[in-house]
């Protein structure tokens, strides 16, 4: 009876450790994949007369999720023949793995900060917008544990 209980306990402990390890690995891989998609889109999209509201690199940590929402809402406005890649990137930006990783503020801290609305960010062309998005994602990725 004791041996069986001990075996079950060991198996449960091993499963918890495996899940914790896989979560960190999955988060890193998902972030890398999203950054790769943003890089690919930046290379493929041609500069044109489309101007979009774009968060800049001076975003406060507690406003990072708001900035991510802005990037996501503006992304689909980019005219391109690479619509599938654009939609994949937009879908990845809304996944909890990315959303939870971009800001490292508590809800209480976020409630105290007043973040800019998407419309208040400067208007930039589509190429600059994608460069800003890529920079934003790389900065968030560099802070992952």
UniProtKB/TrEMBL annotation:
Compartments reported by the entry: Secreted
GO molecular function: cytokine activity; cytokine receptor binding
Keyword annotations: Cytokine, Disulfide bond, Secreted, Signal
GO-annotated biological processes: immune response
GO cellular component entries: extracellular space
Tree of life domain: Eukaryota
Alphabetical list of InterPro entries matching this protein: 4_helix_cytokine-like_core, IL-15/IL-21_fam
Signal peptide positions on this chain: 1-21
Main location class: secreted
KW Cytoplasm (keyword) present: no
Task performed by this protein: Cytokine with immunoregulatory activity. May promote the transition between innate and adaptive immunity. Induces the production of IgG(1) and IgG(3) in B-cells. Implicated in the generation and maintenance of T follicular helper (Tfh) cells and the formation of germinal-centers. Together with IL6, control the early generation of Tfh cells and are critical for an effective antibody response to acute viral infection. May play a role in proliferation and maturation of natural killer (NK) cells in synergy with IL15.
The protein's name in its UniProt record: Interleukin-21
Organism from which the protein derives: Electrophorus voltai
